[in-house]
Specification:
The chain is an alpha+beta fold. It is built from seven helices and eight strands.
């Protein structure tokens, strides 16, 4: 079974509780201290086996192997990846079964992480997630005051539009945001605008 490590939590006697996103579920597993932990890092894609025999409160993680990507040895890219992946555990928490969409979203992003700007990948991946979940808000009215939006639009968490004055936040051009929401691509956005968009995304999915 393959999955992305979304969370690592210390347990008693240096054991670990590992939360993994697989193609169909997000589950937590127990990993004993006697087993090698260095292979378990936030954001890693691993191949593993699940052992339920004798497990008292959660399945055990066994026979783990790391499925690496070339950018893992580039510290800045690894840190950016870990920050992005960390968002998925609280977003998917308490969900017993999942569509393959979330696993495939991360897998596609990981494959592109080496050759593209990670912040642009974050923005484009998040657009896909919002569209999949039906959470894209139209850019016609402010979420706070419900009045029509002007040319300058600020974005709240989950990319919800508002007047800059209503949330005291920086703004982006509405026409550029409309192109982004229509196409799902960051082609029309400057690096500074992508920085702003990705910073909002990093507040939570």
């Amino acid at each position: 079974m393959k999955g992305f490590i979304l969370r690592l939590q210390r347990a008693k006697n240096e054991d670990l509780i590992v939360t993994i996103l697989t193609e169909r579920a997000m589950k937590s597993y127990y990993r004993f201290y006697g087993a090698r932990h260095s292979i378990l890092q936030l954001g890693y894609l691993i191949d593993f086996e699940e052992e339920n025999e004798g497990a008292r409160f959660m399945p055990r993680l066994r026979r783990v192997s790391h499925l690496g990507f070339p950018w893992l040895y580039r510290r800045n890219r690894l840190m950016a990846w870990q920050q992005f992946v960390r968002l998925f555990e609280p977003h998917l928490r308490d969900t017993e079964s999942l569509e393959p969409f979330y696993f495939e979203l991360l897998l596609d992003a990981a494959r592109r992480w080496e050759r593209q700007n990670p912040k642009r990948i974050v923005c484009e991946s998040y657009h896909l997630l919002l569209r999949h979940e039906g959470r894209i808000h139209p850019l016609d009215r402010c979420y706070i005051c419900e009045k029509p939006l002007d040319e300058e639009v600020a974005l709240m968490q989950a990319l919800i539009p508002a007047h800059p004055g209503c949330i005291y936040g920086p703004s982006l051009l509405r026409r550029k945001l409309e192109k982004f929401f229509e196409s799902g691509k960051c082609t029309w956005l400057e690096d500074s605008e992508v920085d702003l968009l990705s910073a909002i995304i990093m507040k939570g999915l």
